Amino acid sequence: MTCRNASHAGSWYTENGNELSRQLDLWLSKADLTHGPARAIIAPHAGYSYCGACAAYAYRQVSPVVVKRIFILGPSHHVRLGGCALSSLDKYQTPLYDLTIDKQIYAELEATRQFEWMDVQTDEDEHSIEMHLPYIAKVMEEYKTGFTIIPILVGSLTPEKEAKYGAILAPYLADPQNLLVISSDFCHWGSRFRYTWRDSSRGHIYQSIEWLDKQGMDIIEKMDPRAFTDYLNKYGNTICGRHPIGVLLQAIAKLRSQPNAPKMSLQFLKYAQSSQCMNHQDSSVSYASASLVFE
Question: Which CDD domains does this one have (predicted)?
Answer without folding.
Answer: MEMO_like (cd07361)
